Amino acid sequence: MVADYSPIRLLHRLTGHEGAVYALCNGPEAGTFLSAGGEGWIVRWDLANPDPGRLIARVEGQVFAVTMLREDQVVLAGDMHGGVHWIDLGDADRSRHIQHHRKGTFSFAVYDGMVFSGGGDGLITRWSANLRQSEESLQISGASIRSLVFDPSGEVLAAGCSDGSICLIDPLRMALRKRIADAHLPSVFSLQFNGAGDQLWSGGRDAHLRRWDRLGRPLEMPSMAAHWYTVNALALSPDAQWLATASRDKTIRIWDTTTGELRQTLETVRDQGHRHSVNALFWSGEYNQLVSASDDRTVCIWTGRQGM
């Protein structure tokens, strides 16, 4: 059955970043989100009153990954030099700045107190959120780990690698369960489980969008490319019916997660979209609004599907 779909439209375009914006995540309070980018700024925005944003932290170098530990009021940021920054919003003396990965820190995944990072050195590291120090690392690739995502149960951690593979990992045992070789050539840039956790979506530098079952077996998808260029990011709608994809081709596309059908493309001119590569996506559960970030130094807020 094809789900009803109400087209998405632009609500706000947010400016203020002085560099490309590479990462988005939940903010410290409900209804807020964070953006981070090439100038090292981490900015808090309020979806109810989004302009202006507020600079809450700054690190040296480009920030490629950011996530929020709301319970602890800690922002976790990864930079181009492999730094992992624990930024405590309540107690600056408890903040820690650790040079950990080589060749950059590109991704974080958090589930029920478990914190993982992925780096340009092909390492996945598990961290103690309480002690803010590394516990154990697993070498899964000789190339960068571009994306990390948990399944909804927290039993599987999926990693997308620049060698074209997807690795399915047991996060408790820090053990490789399965490697999907040549999932995207030459690189896997983005991953997202569906709402039930029985399917994994992946996007790559080959511009394709693919689906896999929980065991890493490919599921049928249209053979055509999802975008013209690299699929940089994926985001699932709060009701899990829609998947948003962001691309270096400047567009955002919305897909039906049940049928795999394309429902909408958000473009530069027609939809007042981004003028350069779209690097990151965040879909707010509180407001059902889609947020996108781009090389054009802007953040866009789009309406989500109505009537949920």
Describe this structure as you would to a colleague.
The protein is mainly beta. The protein is built from no helices and 28 strands. It has a single domain, classed as Methylamine Dehydrogenase, Chain H. Helix content is 0%, strand content 51%. A four-stranded antiparallel sheet has the order 1-28-27-26, with no helix packed on it. The mean pLDDT is 94.
Could you give a short description of this structure?
By secondary structure, this protein is mostly beta strands. The chain has one domain: YVTN repeat-like/Quinoprotein amine dehydrogenase (Methylamine Dehydrogenase, Chain H), CATH 2.130.10.10.
Alpha plus pi helix count: 0
Q: Count every beta strand, where a strand is a DSSP E run of 2 or more residues.
A: 28
Helix percent reads: under 10%
The CATH class label is Mainly Beta
Number of domains: 1
Overall morphology:
globular
The CATH topology name reads: Methylamine Dehydrogenase, Chain H
How would you classify the helix and strand content by structural class?
A: mainly beta
> C-alpha Rg, in Å?
18 Å
Q: What is the N-to-C order of secondary-structure elements (H for helix, E for strand)?
A: EEEEEEEEEEEEEEEEEEEEEEEEEEEE
Q: In which order are the strands of the major sheet placed?
A: 1-28-27-26
**What number is the mean pLDDT?**
94
**How large a portion of the residues is in β-strands, by DSSP E?**
over 45%
CATH arch. level architecture: 7 Propeller
